[in-house]
Design goal:
Elements (H helix, E strand, L loop, with lengths): L2 H21 L17 E4 L10 E4 L4 E4 L8 E4 L7 E3 L6 E4 L34 E4 L2 E4 L3 E5 L11 E10 L2 E8 L7 E6 L6 E5 L3 E3 L10 E11 L5 E11 L5 E5 L29 E4 L4 E4 L4 E5 L5 E10 L5 E10 L1
Antiparallel strand pairs: 1-22, 2-3, 2-15, 4-5, 4-13, 6-9, 7-8, 9-10, 10-11, 11-12, 13-14, 15-16, 17-20, 18-19, 20-21, 21-22
Length: about 350
């Protein structure tokens, strides 16, 4: 056999050996690289055009960790350390008042009550149910009076009416209370809400009892939602208004507003130059403005935030839109990056 024939045989043999070796090993899968510093991502919260949902957002995974319906709950019972307290759902215009009365069968005139709603900064002193429990002799005691709760409005913007509630005790990490209809009351319903250390709050619905709303406290960073607040008016006063904004996770999460640097220039070294706070509504609702002439929302320029999460990561964030690609409002878009 001449040299040319031998070369052809060697070439075919090499191809066969290579093919056999390749078939003996599993094909490698592409690696999923971990998030690195400086990667700018785009997030979107699907509140929807009618603001049907609230969204708990997770920066690390760039996902909506949970998106329950806004009307799914009425009361939120704190699972946090410190003073036991209860929040009301101001996103559906709920309010509350202490009647000073002690018996369920006493007549209550709602028109004489001073109804209040929770401040969005979540200060315990500004909660509508702030006097539900108080500290006495090193233990928390329930206020022995009836609270009236204005249930706000339903999805069709119809008034839901009232409930009367009496908080009986807080012990063994459980809230115990009674509630009934304001009118035509019969026998009060007894309820017990246990704390869950994995959550910031346990949520309760007068219609459905204990409901799942918030994800585990270490699994989210900011919340997109609706809430009541007071807005200034031209005469120097204030007016009650339902807004759509962003609240901070109350669990070991802090924030600072940054307006003296461009978003792209903010880096990890900047975190030592600012004083971080735990104000829940520091982002709030006014990162956007409404134009009456254009009947549309626009984003406030040069408004950035740095958030220190409960996992001790720093993220910079800015908002870029309030509309989706179909020009529907209620879909806030934001850019963020881990520092």
């Amino acid at each position: 056999m001449n040299n040319k024939g031998l070369n052809i045989i060697k070439f075919v043999a090499i191809l066969l050996i290579t093919s056999l070796l390749h078939s003996c090993f599993e094909e490698e899968q592409p690696m999923s690289l971990p998030e690195t510093q400086g990667d700018i991502k785009l997030g979107i919260a699907h509140l929807t055009e009618n603001y049907t949902y609230q969204v708990f957002y997770n920066f690390e995974d760039n996902i909506e960790e949970a998106n329950p319906e806004l009307h799914s709950w009425d009361l939120a019972f704190s699972c946090l350390e410190g003073t036991p307290h209860i929040r009301i759902n101001t996103g559906i215009s709920m309010k509350a008042a202490n009647t000073g009365k002690k018996a369920f069968n006493e007549t209550i005139d709602v028109s004489n009550l001073e109804m209040n709603f929770d401040n969005s900064n979540n200060s315990l002193e500004t909660l509508a149910l702030k006097n539900a429990f108080y500290l006495e002799n090193h233990q928390f005691v329930a206020n022995d009076t009836i609270f009236v709760i204005d249930l706000g409005k339903n999805q069709n913007n119809e008034v839901r009416g009232y409930k009367k509630v009496k908080f009986l005790k807080y012990e063994n990490d459980e809230y115990i209370f009674q509630y009934d209809d304001l009118e035509n009351s019969t026998q009060p319903v007894n309820c017990t809400i246990p704390k869950d250390v994995n959550l910031n709050y346990q949520y309760f619905s007068f219609e459905n009892g204990l409901v799942k709303v918030e994800p585990q406290k270490e699994r989210w960073d900011i919340q997109f939602t609706s809430y009541l607040t007071m807005l200034p008016v031209e005469d120097g006063g204030e007016i009650e208004y339902l807004v759509r904004g962003v609240l901070l996770n109350p669990f070991n999460t802090k924030i600072v507003k940054v307006q003296d640097k461009d978003f792209y220039d903010i880096n990890i070294n900047d975190t030592s130059n600012y004083n971080f706070v735990s104000t829940l509504d520091l982002i709030g609702h006014d990162w956007k403005e409404y134009s009456i002439e254009e009947s549309a929302y626009t984003i406030v320029p040069n408004l950035n935030f740095i958030i220190k999460t409960s996992a001790d990561y720093y993220y910079k964030i800015r908002f870029v839109d309030f509309y989706n690609d179909e020009n529907q409002k209620g879909f806030p878009k934001f850019e963020f990056a881990r520092l």
